[in-house]
């Protein structure tokens, strides 16, 4: 069985709205051995949507539509599905009763347009939606299965989890799957492929997916077998071979992101982290405070963007700043040391300091340190270390890379791995 997802709605074709439902559906189906082979977005156009449904049903046994089941005239999924399948739309009184009950609970009258949501494809199965007024629909025939789901994620996700997956489980293959996820920092996607391509390319029955983001590469090794235990053994065995090749650039063996990995290490060592950020402008602190319980490992930080903030707030020596410049190894070291000192004095406990200073662009830079140059300082009980990186151009990209690299350098410092 293979699946396709059709996301419905003209708003999904604009920059302001992102289709997240297909990502959720791809994950849930993939976990159960059903590959998502195609997904597309179709605007509120009945003719185009009907044509896409016909095409998808000819190509795949399972087709899922998300959205377009609301009460307004631009919600056309029901009508398009009727056109594509040749099934009439029939009024379903129990759906209308449920809609009326929902409105009464909120002390609101039922609008006449809500009657549109009570029409279902003839011969289809109604999928109750306890979180909204638009029920799902399930149609099964000689071409396979067609599922209509509401668009809001808070309605689609529980409806798919609680109602659709149990029904699909009866029709899915008996195979079981297990995925090992390794995460890597400090190596690019192409270099990674050169090193591990020969390892995974010869692994029959294991699907390898490499996902790349600035400063972070994920390696997904998905094995299948007649039992989950056997699938796990196969995936983990291949993961061990990849780990042997890559060594300490692998920062996570279970899919844990870098910020959470670093946070756990800091807690285990009994430190508190203090950050002093210039070019990253607080992005490192912001990333870390997204983690629940961040007060266990993060003391705080300084966004010391100006020279005055570096000297007046942090305590960087003004003579060093004047002599070497804000973007320099000496200032990065001083920023990390000052941040660590402030945290240790304020909290009365061990601390580690992390700093960033650089030229994010598009202007700035020098012949020696062009735009994209970032210096990172790490200071702990064993002294301080400074690292220089050239991150290319693109302000947003440089800053995102700097956050990831700063965290990776901190991880390596804590583990005594050096700054490779």
Short description:
40% of the residues lie in helices and 25% in strands. By secondary structure, the protein is of the alpha/beta class.
Describe the 3D structure.
The protein is α/β, with parallel strands linked by helices and 420 residues long. Helices cover 40% and strands 25% of the residues. The strands form four sheets. A six-stranded mixed beta sheet has the order 2-1-3-8-7-6, sandwiched between helices. It has a five-stranded mixed beta sheet with strand order 14-13-15-16-17, sandwiched between helices. Strands 10-11-9-12 form a four-stranded antiparallel beta sheet, sandwiched between helices. The chain is elongated and about 80 Å long. The model has no long low-confidence stretch (mean pLDDT 93).
Could you name the key traits of this structure?
420 residues; alpha/beta; six-stranded mixed beta sheet; five-stranded mixed beta sheet; 13 helices; 17 strands; elongated
């Amino acid at each position: 069985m293979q699946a396709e997802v059709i996301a419905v709605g003209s708003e999904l074709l604009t920059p302001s709205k992102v289709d997240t439902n297909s990502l959720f559906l791809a994950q849930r189906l993939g976990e159960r051995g059903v590959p998502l082979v195609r997904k597309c977005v179709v605007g509120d156009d009945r003719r185009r949507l009907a044509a896409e449904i016909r095409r998808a049903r000819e190509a795949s046994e399972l087709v899922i539509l998300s959205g377009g089941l609301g009460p307004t005239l631009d919600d056309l999924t029901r009508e398009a599905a009727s056109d594509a399948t040749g099934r009439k739309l029939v009024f379903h009184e129990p759906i209308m009763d449920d809609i009326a009950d929902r409105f009464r609970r909120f002390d609101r009258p039922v609008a006449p347009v809500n009657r549109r949501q009570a029409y279902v494809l003839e011969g289809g199965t109604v999928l109750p939606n306890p979180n909204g007024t638009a029920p799902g629909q399930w149609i099964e025939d000689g071409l396979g299965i067609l599922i209509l789901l509401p668009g809001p994620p808070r309605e689609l996700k529980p409806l798919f989890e609680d109602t659709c997956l149990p029904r699909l489980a009866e029709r899915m293959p008996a195979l079981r799957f297990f995925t090992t996820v390794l995460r890597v920092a400090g190596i690019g996607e192409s270099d990674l492929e050169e090193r591990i391509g020969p390892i995974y390319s010869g692994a029959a029955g294991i699907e390898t997916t490499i996902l790349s983001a600035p400063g972070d590469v994920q390696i997904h090794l998905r094995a299948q077998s007649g039992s989950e235990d056997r699938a796990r053994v196969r995936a983990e065995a291949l993961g061990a071979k990849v780990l042997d090749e890559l060594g300490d650039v692998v920062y996570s063996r279970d899919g844990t992101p870098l910020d959470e990995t670093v946070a756990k290490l800091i807690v285990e060592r009994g430190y508190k982290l203090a950050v002093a950020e210039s070019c990253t402008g607080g992005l490192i602190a912001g990333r870390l405070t997204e983690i629940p319980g961040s007060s266990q490992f993060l003391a705080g930080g300084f966004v010391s963007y100006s020279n005055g903030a570096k000297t007046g707030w942090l305590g960087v020596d003004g003579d060093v700043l004047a002599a070497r410049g804000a973007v320099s190894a000496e200032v990065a070291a001083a920023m990390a040391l000052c941040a660590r000192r402030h945290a240790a004095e304020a909290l009365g406990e061990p601390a580690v300091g992390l700093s960033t200073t650089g030229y994010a662009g598009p202007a700035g830079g020098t012949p020696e340190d062009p735009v994209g140059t970032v210096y990172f300082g790490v200071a702990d009980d064993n002294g301080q270390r400074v690292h220089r990186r050239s991150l290319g151009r693109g302000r947003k990209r440089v800053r995102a890379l700097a956050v990831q690299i700063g965290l990776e350098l901190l991880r390596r410092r804590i583990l005594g791995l050096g700054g490779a």
